Amino acid sequence: MPEAPTSPIRLQVASVEAALQQVVGLHWQAIQQYTAQGEHFARWGYAKLADAARADAAEEHGHLQKAMARLEFYDIAP
Question: What is the pTM assigned to this prediction?
């Protein structure tokens, strides 16, 4: 039996889902990277750089929360 054509609206929703999931992954990676950099800078004695990296991680965490809220609004698992 031939497959039914997919509606343009469903394709747009699928692309939004994929984009939001990609955004979540990218922000999660950024949080991990900035946190690790902050740890290294602190260990090496660069307190100001460590604080800046930790602040960047906190900012990315805020972005992640917004992306997660959007996913939850659409009832999509991350």
Answer: 0.79
- Average pLDDT for 43-64: 97
Angle at 18 between CA 15 and CA 20, to 5 degrees: 110
Residues in Cβ contact with 41 at an 8 Å cutoff, skipping those fewer than 6 apart: 47, 49, 50, 53
Closest of 56, 54, 57, 65 to residue 24, by C-alpha: 65
Question: In this structure, what DSSP letter does residue 4 have?
Answer: P
User: How far apart are alpha carbons 10 and 15 in whole angstroms?
Assistant: 9
Identify whether the C-beta of residue 37 lies closer than 8 Å to the C-beta of residue 15.
no
Residue holding tokens 């900012």?
59
